[in-house]
Amino acid sequence: MDNNNLLPKLSQNLLEILNDEEYYDVTIEVGKDPYVRIFRAHMVILHYRSPYLKRIFSTHKKKNDGNLTQIKLPEFYPEIFQLILRYIYGGKLSLEEYETSDIIKIMDTASKLSLQELVNYLQSYLIDKKANWIEQNFTMVYKASYENNSFLRLQKYCTDLISKEPDKIFRSLNFSSIPEKLLISIIQNDNLQMSEVQVWEHVLKWGLAQNPELPSDVNNYSDDDFNILKNTLQRCIPFIKFYNLTSKEFMDKVLPYEQILPKELYKDLMKAFLSLLDPNSKPKKSRIPKEIKLKPINSKIITSQHAELILKWIGKLEIYTNELTSYEFKLLFHGSRDGLAPDKFHEFCDGKSHTITVVKVKDSNEILGGYNPIAWRSDGSFSNTKDSFIFSYDNNNGHVLSRVINEKYAIYNNHFGGPSFGCGDLELLRFTSKNEILPEIFQIILRYIYGGKLILEEYDISNIIKIMDAASKLSLQELINYLQSYLIEMKTNWIEQNFSMIYQASFENNSFLELQKYCTNLISDEPDKIFKSLNFSSIPEKLMISIIQSDKLQMSEVQVWEHVLKWGLAQNSELPSDLTSFSVDDFNTLKNILQQLIPFIRFYNLTSKEFSDKVFPYMKILPEDLCMDLLKTYLDLLDPNSKPDDKSKPRITKKIDFKTIDSKIITYQHAELILKWINRLEITDELTTSHEFELLFRGSRDGFVPKNFHEFCDGKSHTITVAKVKDSNEIVGGYNPIAWNSNNEYSNTKDSFIFSFENNNGIDNHILSRVVNEQWAIRNHGKCGPLFGIGDLYFWNDISINGNSMSKKINYDKSIKKAKDKFYIEELEVFQIIKT
């Protein structure tokens, strides 16, 4: 047995001991008035876990007299000490619960308590996960690391950051507040990748910021002003490499401040620079040279030339500049080596910042790529940065650089994909369904199979989707149902924040019916949450259609149209933001993007004013027939707030009232399409006759037995049978134009058909299969339910029993089920179609 499996329980028990109010033997008063709190603890645990507390307890020898030991720690914050105490007992600290700034306080407290293991863990967390935050709060972090010798790794990280990217520090908002001691530590660094004149300018800027009363123009300085600045910078000046300046830089930048330099230094500098004839030459060098030597790049895609240009883009330098910092390109992920799969990308790259992604486009010499300055994640969120960019190199050695505009949506941490920049600006390694299950996920499943338990709080929420997907592949429906319930009941907020990812997952897997239903209801009830979500624009077209075709969508039609337009424009960022600037090609581009969505917009539900303001400007993207019909309809209206007659102007086809359908399986959309099949119409054709669907038989109401089916349905013609397949969203069914009976014979008809819908929330994915062998079209069997053909669609004996429903391609022209022949059903209904 792996002993690590016992640690969670041990940790849990130790935390229970901390909360125990009976067996404690020490009280600790923490903080200063008015913020004081008393903690109860156990001397033996604190003694062995904290060397600092061990020293304190050594002066408080425990007595066996029943009295409590009492100590005071006024130098600590009570709320921080409480966190540390839980770590001491349980060995755990969930950092996601705290503000990043609090982690510095926790580190400081851990250092004082001599908890170096915790200090090291916190340093690693900040460096690996919060690199962007460190840069934004550099002065505070560098100062903390410099003043505490326990923070050596953080100190090294800050020092390296200063050396490699000094501009980020010198130009930060709080640079001027950096203490003198830290400034000296920065400028005395021989590896500082910055020209000496820039170092001098930043030191001057810092000195002036310490004395805001000094004039802004050096020509207006008095002797006292020079003395003030001299005293401020007297400890910094010895670390300026003045001899690294050109004579012109010395004359322009240093000479005006000669009075703040030591006299001997000034004389030596004047002598050295006056001896030079070339104004661009330097007397001697004392700082490490700035020549750039790129280490060999382990790449099958880019060369050192590409790399040098990318580095200049990162540094926001001109192409022709020579002021470039030395860098190493460390290969993290290689598709042909590690596998072209999203999971592999996240395995090697999550948590890594300052990354360059490059891809070779198949069957061309084109290279695409992007730069992400912050750490990759896979939680389905967007990350904010102003420094990311994407780029391309074409076959003719030309290039395109594209910097981020909408910083909030700069990076998409795609759970189902690889590197993703913006809302589809550059998206690589999109998820494709595979049969493989990750080893770590299979291990979790295996523990469930053996032990029947799964502690979901131990896993990242995003991993639960992976566990569900694996459970689906292993046909563990009980586990899938449990996981769906957990997400719906406990993680609703997370679902909303990651809606696109969740809806896509539920839509692509028919085992996730509860989650799919929850998402569908959420869309209908609160569409604003979806349409206004950060990643709405990245929703695939198929899911977008499923959203806007919902009849229960609680949103006005003009709002639906506006969101569809917004989605379409986001799919092509090159389109002008101003419609008046659209060219004919721009309109055609948008038309092609939205051609599958436009048929689901209910244009006839708009007022004439809404049509005029919101639709008319985009008439060039509408089909010509629809365009002409809309113009004719709305021009006939005089009242700007009126709408066309719904009965004469339907959404796609003529509107038929199906509100009277009493069905647990199909909607009026299914019914409308079935009627078109009966009348052999195209999907886009209009129905000219209204029909009523009269319910004859329902399995859950009348009993899943053949005798009852025949009792209610024999002698009835023009019937539709529909059945809901168990543990899926699939609907199967058939149409029988002639009367059912129980004479154990076949009936002949050329008009019967069978069908299936992949999703009961829409009609997009369907199969229609018409009879080809008419003499075997319908079988009438007294001991069976509805039978179509010789096994094309059978509901046998006890209709609800496993395997007693079947579908094969024999007498009808297509197979209506892609999966296995035999299947369960959970509901069956038979309707008679009556013309009204």
TrEMBL record:
Domain TLDc residue range list: 300-465, 664-834
Database matches in SMART domains: BTB, TLDc
Domain BTB: 24-97
InterPro entries per UniProt: BACK, BTB/POZ_dom, SKP1/BTB/POZ_sf, TLDc_dom
Residues annotated as signal peptide: none
Full protein name: Carbohydrate-binding module family 13 protein
Naturally occurring in which organism (per UniProt): Rhizophagus clarus
